[in-house]
Structures are given as C-alpha cells and as structure tokens.
Amino acid sequence: MASVPFHYIDLRTFCYATEDEKRVEEAIRAFLPEEFEVERSTTEGYHGDRIVVLSARVEKADDVRHVLARLSELDDIDRVMDELDDRVDDNCSFFLRLDKQAAFRGEVRRGEGLTLRAKVEAYPAKREAAVENARGALEDVRAAEHGSDEGEAGA
C-alpha cells in the first residue's frame, strides 16, 4: 500500500475508577506503534467519580499503516467492509468500536470500550468517495496481511 487515504486515526478510551489505568493504557497501545504517546485528561463522572480519558492521534503514514494492519486482524473484517456505507459519515469520518478487554489481551475484536475514528481522504470531500477510499485501504491491508501469512507458511 503505497499511500494511505487517511488524514489521521484517533483512538480513545475511558479508564473508570474501577479499572487499572496501566491495563487500560495497554489496551489502547495494542493498536499503536511502539513508544507512541498516549494523552491523558481527567474528568468527573456523574456521581463525582474520576474518569481518565486516554487518547492518541496517529497521523504519519507508517503509523496509520500500523493501526490498519492491526484492524486487518479482525475476524470479521469483511463484514466491517460491507458496513462501510453505515460506518462513514457525511464528514468523511470512519467509525469503529473495539473491545477494550480483548485489546488488553492483545486480541483485535469489535465490541465496547475503545473508539476508533479515522478521517478518510476524499477529493472532493464526498461520503461516497470516502467509503470507496476506506474500502480500498482495508482491502489493501487485508491482502498484505494474507500475503505475508502465506509467504511465512511457504518458508
């Protein structure tokens, strides 16, 4: 995949008072390149409890490729691609929710806890063009991952 049709990818999760902040950070880091900076902000829940918001914005092409490669590990990546019409909004943003508990274990699954938002490049900035660009990028990364698996098996 020569170019990556994403301006950036944002990842965000919440660490509630009942959770271990280091473990929650490990979950978000499961999608990030090594040594990537994770930002923290603290807010207060409805009942006065402390909530830490952990987030990261990935902008460099190689870092975006890293996140996409992790997404290609989804068992149902084909289903995600089939749902792109519903997952890309009129502002050309692609949304996906990921399982925070699975991410902590190093697994990639859809679920609750981690939010991914990716701004898709589209010229002109039309939803239909963004859907096609996102589909192409996910197909490319899926093909690259399957190709590397086959190469390793033959070695």
Automatic annotation (TrEMBL):
Source organism, top-level taxon: Archaea
Family matches, as InterPro entries: PAB1135-like (IPR002739), Ribosomal_uL5_dom_sf (IPR022803)
Gene3D superfamilies referenced in this protein's UniProt entry, alphabetically: 3.30.1440.10
Pfam families: RNA_binding
Protein name as annotated: RNA-binding protein
Organism listed in the record: Halobium salinum
Lineage: Archaea, Methanobacteriati, Methanobacteriota, Stenosarchaea group, Halobacteria
